[in-house]
Design brief:
The complex is a heterodimer of chains A (94) and B (485). Chain A has 3 helices and no strands. With 94 residues, chain A is mainly alpha-helical. Chain B is an alpha/beta fold and 485 residues long. Chain B has a single domain, classed as Alpha-Beta Complex (Amidase signature (AS) enzymes). Helix content of chain B is 39%, strand content 13%. Chain B is built from 16 helices and 11 strands. In chain B, helix 4 links the parallel strand 2 and strand 3. In chain B, helix 2 runs antiparallel to helix 3, helix 5 runs parallel beside helix 6 and helix 10 crosses helix 13. Chain B is globular. Classes of the chains: A mainly alpha (94), B alpha/beta (485). At the A-B interface, helix 1 and helix 2 of A face helix 10, helix 11, helix 12, helix 13 and helix 14 of B.
């Protein structure tokens, strides 16, 4: 199953990725090939089969909703590309 | 005595008897890294000063009789695990300058056990790859043949252990990323049961599949490392409350009467090298000679595992990697006045091609109109794979098959075609999808002198049985006596 350039552009926008013109063409080819490999799943009869989202040995993990220690502000900000000592800084939104 | 040739078990005995010091053991490994790693490329960061200081502290605890179970043992960890105060890049430009404010639980447990950490090991970017060639920083070479890859994504971990640059290492395994490089580098690599080891501080790739696990040159070493890192952690709600057995002591139980399932399907798998097929048959015969009983089983949906994986893993990754937005940590594209374009340029420029490709596949499979056909369908077939294993384990105690379809491939051989590389994971992916434990143990060398691994898969939380089988094969074959280079 092929994937059009438009579909790739749509998905790239959803994923917040900037991708160069040449790479879009390469991706369309490679991803088309990968998706056609994935299409073999259509052979499998899955009627009435529930999906598995995780490996499934787990019970619900409840805990009390209690206050716990957290990272000090300075440590939380230490890796930020831009911060002012109080907050993360981002380009103007509004 | 060559200190770098010791096993972890031997080093523990010598340290405990004070016949060697933690400092000299650490120093010996640091000099080996300095001399040999420029040609191998296993390490991204070497923490020599911190390691020597930790070794001195170990020597003090050894003298005071307060030694932990891994006291003074020099280890290294894949750069996917957070290390407090030490850069954790995940093999990616986007995390090139990231210095975590905390340790991953697996790392913290190694430190609590007294281990000395030598540094951080190379990997495919965000653990996406099977050759370590997707690292943004350097190429890692296979210690058995420098023109070949060590496998991946934990290629640095496998290569470092094989080249005697550390006594053991940690990696992570989402679709085979511990077992496949272990197979290609002739070492032991274990992916524990999902939930056996905390994922807290493991940089997330595909959260329903990721597990942290050990590498060692001997099965006992891998068992000792697993004992140290396993167990429930309140910081990871998916970590299991199961008791942690004494895995290393359990190896002495032998394998008499254990039933080993042989899935008929593996023989017909795409791209299986006949030499690997023969090595696996011989390994199973060896185990039978030691008292195990081979039985034919069937995993009819195994042939769909790669297709299921390449929907589920990218889908989860596209969601997990949304956090790299240039705001809280990691790199940011500079001089962008507008938020959306800052996001796009940050992610477009600092993620490598394979990561971008998988984000696009994952986003596509989750997008409106395609979700049911791809993600929904894949998660249903995943259920059938889980069911296949449940059926099979009614008839056997463990399942044996190759770890990888071929020995290590050449650098650059598969970089042009992503799908061919994906098929290298054909035997390892099923265990991740089902969440069961699996180990790769060296079982032969190819005619070209390259290691071949046998994979043993076990029931959930029964790492003990597959480790016992692996130890029996190791003893029978004695391949650990061969050294690379």
């Amino acid at each position: 199953m092929g994937v059009s350039k438009e579909e790739i552009l749509h998905v790239v926008a959803l994923a917040r990725l900037e991708i160069g013109e040449q790479e879009i063409d390469a991706f369309a080819g490679q991803i088309g090939e990968i998706l056609s490999y994935i299409d073999r799943l259509r052979e499998v009869d899955t009627s009435g089969v529930a999906g598995t989202a995780y490996a499934g040995f787990l019970q619900n993990a409840f805990r009390e909703d209690e206050e716990r220690s957290h990272l000090p502000r300075q440590e939380a900000l230490a890796n930020a590309p831009e911060a002012d000592g109080e907050s993360f800084l981002v380009p103007r939104v509004i | 005595m060559e200190l770098h040739e010791l096993t972890i078990a031997e080093a523990r005995r010598l340290l405990a008897k004070r016949e060697i010091s933690a400092r000299e053991l650490t120093a010996a490994h640091l000099s080996r890294i300095e001399a040999l790693d420029p040609g191998i490329g296993a390490f991204l960061t070497v923490t020599a000063e911190e390691a020597l200081a930790a070794a001195d502290a170990s020597d003090q605890r050894l003298a005071a009789g307060r030694a932990g179970p891994l006291e003074g043992i020099p280890l290294a960890v894949k750069d996917v695990l957070c290390t407090r105060g030490v850069r954790t890049s995940c093999g990616s430009r986007i995390l090139e300058n990231f210095v975590p404010p905390y340790d991953a639980t697996a790392v913290a447990r190694l430190r609590q056990a007294g281990a000395v950490l030598l540094g951080k090991l190379n990997m495919d970017e965000f653990a996406m790859g099977s050759s370590t060639e997707n690292s943004a920083f350097r190429v890692t070479r296979n210690p058995w043949d420098p023109d070949r890859t060590p496998g991946g994504s934990s290629g640095g971990s496998a290569a470092a252990v094989a080249a005697r640059l550390c006594l053991g290492a940690l990696g992570s395994d989402t679709g085979g990323s511990i077992r496949q490089p272990a197979s290609h580098c002739g070492v032991v690599g274990l992916k524990p049961t999902y939930g056996r080891v905390s994922r807290y501080g493991l940089v997330a790739f595909a959260s329903s599949l990721d597990q942290v696990g050990p590498f060692g040159r001997r099965v006992e070493d891998a068992a000792l490392l697993l004992e140290a890192i396993a167990g429930h952690d309140p910081a990871d709600s998916t970590s299991a409350r199961e008791p942690v057995p004494a895995f290393a002591a359990g190896l002495e139980k032998g394998i008499q009467g254990l039933k080993i399932g042989i899935p008929a399907e593996y023989r017909a798998a795409e791209g299986l090298d006949p030499e690997v097929g023969r090595a696996v048959e011989e390994a199973v015969s060896d185990l039978a000679r030691r008292g195990a009983q081979p039985v034919e089983i069937s995993l009819p949906h195994m042939r769909y595992a790669v297709a299921v994986y390449y929907v589920i893993a990218p889908a989860e990754a596209s969601s997990n990697l949304a956090r790299y937005d240039g705001v809280k940590y990691g790199r940011r594209a500079q001089d962008e006045a507008e938020l959306l374009s800052m996001y796009r340029k940050t992610r477009g420029r600092h993620f490598g091609p394979e990561v971008r490709r998988r984000i696009v596949i994952g986003t596509y499979c989750l997008s409106a109109g395609y979700y049911d056909a791809y993600y929904g369908k894949a998660s249903q077939v995943r259920s059938l794979i889980v069911r296949d294993f449940a059926e099979a384990f009614r008839r056997c105690d463990a399942i044996a098959c190759p770890t990888a379809p071929t020995p290590a491939f050449r650098l650059g051989e598969k970089t042009a075609d992503p799908l061919t590389l994906y098929l290298a994971d054909i035997f390892t992916i099923p265990a991740n999808l089902a969440g069961i434990p699996a180990v790769s143990v060296p079982c032969a060398f190819s005619s070209a002198g390259l290691p071949i691994g046998l994979q043993l898969m076990g029931k959930a939380f029964d790492e003990e049985t597959i480790l016992r089988l692996a130890a029996a094969l190791e003893e029978e074959r004695g391949l650990f006596r061969r050294r690379p280079g």
